[in-house]
Amino acid sequence: MKKDKVSIPVVRRLPRYYRYLSELMRNQILKTSSSELSTKMGLTASQIRQDFNCFGGFGQQGYGYNVELLHDEIGVILGLNDLKNIVIVGAGNLGSALAKHIDFGKRGFNLTGIFDVDPNIIGKKINGMEVKDFSLITECFRRNPPNVAVLTVPRSVAKQTAEQLIALGVKGFWNFSNAEITIPGIYFENVHLGDSLMTLSYRITNHKEDEII
Amino acid sequence: MKKDKVSIPVVRRLPRYYRYLSELMRNQILKTSSSELSTKMGLTASQIRQDFNCFGGFGQQGYGYNVELLHDEIGVILGLNDLKNIVIVGAGNLGSALAKHIDFGKRGFNLTGIFDVDPNIIGKKINGMEVKDFSLITECFRRNPPNVAVLTVPRSVAKQTAEQLIALGVKGFWNFSNAEITIPGIYFENVHLGDSLMTLSYRITNHKEDEII
DNA sequence: TAGATTGTTAATCGATTAACAATC
DNA sequence: TAGATTGTTAATCGATTAACAATC
């Protein structure tokens, strides 16, 4: 049955399901089952069925799941179909690497601008898109107001930059700045690459033979 | 009391504690308490005390925690003090951005090499370090065998590249390749930037007024 | 000493797993 | 129909929260 409140762990697993189903599609596999997925993904079949049933039943008893249908449904749930405008703010190493590396279109976003404050960077082209002066951002937002911004500025200016963008209507941030900002009503997806690396350090340092993950 | 098996959620919070304590140190704050940290970090005081006590008691009843001592203890737990050699394999957009952007030294690692297969990239300098030919990797590993590799190669070659590196002694991967690889005894810290972005898409698409995170 | 705050045990909550009836 | 596999309810497990005695 469809749930109205879906828990964070379930939401975090959705993109993973989506990837595995994409892979099955690439391999022209038409049907799958919770038990098949469970062995492939290292989850329990029960959990998979529970997860899917947070959003309604996509399967057929006795048969399993139609791969493409399930894939597309999860895409819809994730909101990948209605493209949300997104801009990159901060075109340093990380910002420009993300501009080139991430397929925003496949992830539910439409990249409409890249901004920086550094005169050495402004005017450069990244993936055919010119880096614009951040001080002109108000003007640029008139035409294509974005819902979301990638925040790849130094931590020291992260909060003030976020506030400026919120004032212009931005509702969500993909935040790489290493600052933890929380503002009511605004969505922050904080990516802490340093934390991830330290977690790896922990595991390598404290390994006890066995355990994976 | 010191626990011998520490759960994943606890481990993932350690870098976060470490960051908040670093911040307190920057602000010359000498002592803190679980309740003070809890309001700052959005956790419960109880959880914080539970977390710290997985590793033994670092506080003093009636006083709280000495910021620097706690910070340094967590650093030791994370293994940040004994630097582990790390190489970057794949010097494309993301690999080279990470080389420039990440302070490996502060995260428990010592960057000793950057490799690629592309003749257009080999020989370039990134942060003063020359990109070496991946086919010479066996030779390069003689001197400074690394424990860990950053895997920033395309998904299609990720698995075979990982296997080559494991054969040369690599025990852990910071894996950006978007391939989910599991090999017994080897540590994979998988960073799925696309998943992170899709999670943001989900939340923006399905927002119900209230809820943050 | 009195006040504060830890370390730790016990209670609660939520997520995962198991079981099974429904049904294709 | 028989076999398979879902959707869903119930049981279990583990993580979080609450409570409080220990003690600085």
Word description of this protein:
The structure is a homodimer of 213-residue chains. In chain A, helix 1 (8-26) crosses helix 4 and helix 2 crosses helix 3 (45-53). With 213 residues, the first copy, chain A, is an alpha/beta fold. The model of chain A is unreliable at 209-213 (pLDDT under 50). Chain A is 42% helix and 19% strand. In chain A, the strands form two sheets. A seven-stranded mixed sheet of chain A has the order 6-7-5-4-8-9-10. A three-stranded antiparallel sheet of chain A has the order 1-3-2. The first copy, chain A, is built from eight helices and ten strands. Chains A and B meet through helix 1, helix 5, strand 10 and helix 8 of A and helix 1, helix 5, strand 10 and helix 8 of B.
**In oligomeric terms, what are we looking at?**
homodimer
Indicate the overall shape of chain A.
Answer: globular
Helix and strand element order of chain A: HEHHEEHEHEEEHEHEEH
Cα separation of the termini of chain A? 31 Å
**What summary fits the major beta sheet of chain A?**
7 strands, mixed
Strand content of chain A: 15-25%
Round the mean pLDDT of chain A to the nearest integer and report it: 95
Count of helical regions of chain A: 8
Percentage of residues assigned to helices of chain A: 40-55%
